[in-house]
Amino acid sequence: MDTDRISHRLVALTREHLVPGAQLAVHHAGRTWTHEVGLAADAAVPIGSITKTFTATVAMALVSDGDLELDAPLSDHLPGASDELTLRHLLSHTGGLPSDPEDVRTTSLRHHVRQALRELHPLHEPGAGFSYSNIGYVLIGHLIEVATGMSWAEAVEAVLLRPLGVRARFTTSADADVVSGHAVNPATGRVVPVAQSLAPVDAPAGALAASAGDLLAFGRMLGGGGPRLLDPGDLALMREPVRHAEPFGMADGWGLGLALFQRDGVRWVGHDGTADGTSCHLRINPDDGTTVALTTNGSTGFALWRELVPELVAAGLPVADYDGMRDLRRPIAPPPDCTGRFRNGDVEYAVRAVDRGRLALTVDGEPFADLSLFDGLVFAMRDSDTGDTNQTGRFLRDPGDGGIRWIQIGGRLARRHAVEMH
Hints:
The chain is an alpha+beta fold. It is built from ten helices and 19 strands. β8 (259-263) and β9 (266-275) form a beta hairpin. The longest helix has 15 residues, at 50-64. It is globular and about 55 Å long. The N and C termini lie far apart (55 Å).
């Protein structure tokens, strides 16, 4: 592994993408190496949705201890939940739940969960498909509270962080010692600090802050190194693909709390996370224990990561990442039933025809992307703001009547609720 090359490219990419600070931590071939740009090694960066993997690991530790069951009805612990819905569904985003509830009217996690269970409109039957869901992980957080008698934050610290030697830091804490995120405008060069806005009731889905070194310790445990915090069989189960978990636009597959990525026939696992003005990434190769963690405190950190991955590969670190563009085959004209309105919770996606070969997508009425369709109803997205074309999505047909029923973007499904737009 050419660490000099990696260091040089990380510095150059932070400048190119106007990212104020980044931390990179790598464990490879028995050696741990770190490099920081603009941040102290122990600085805690809001890691966004990587928090979900911490929440999932605590839940799986409780499964190992016999306090929770993967396939028991969720209603055994959470009154009002569907008898068909299970912890396995929630961990793998196959529960058919929308991303977020339509309206948060409480600061109590218990009340938040009860409200969601009463009011959420499912996208599909549990186990029938994949749709990335924040509220699903909020349910897991409350399930952990019911099983342990502790708050979610207390359980994460006691069951996971303390045994790993990781200091507990949460963005939802009033005295949180965390790094500020930054909104970056590449066109103007403007970089503005931003505050974290995650509601306390959504903490199990995204409230942790950590350094790249913290993520490395966590990732090594998930890869089978470090302290043994759950049964090896349950740990291996987290890394196995779940049936019908097809996170198109996000990853190559999904396990129990972990995204799956492929490179040259080798399966890597991990998760990505975006908070307000931050972007963080974790990858683990369970076969050889290689672990890579990157934290950035700029909104352009995701673009930085996408450019860093091939640099890591060229430097002798063959880390895996998702590339939806490789699934694009033959361009096709959009079928007429692609157009219409689709909903995921309170978010509305609207698709209209621009010309014979192109569709326009708006999200909650705001221009989002132009869509170019390919075989399999897969589409490339040209971002309305940046012009970037590195994101993909797809339309999905109803297996019953054959009509287009869903659109999937960023792993999230939205279900049709109105037909063609004019």
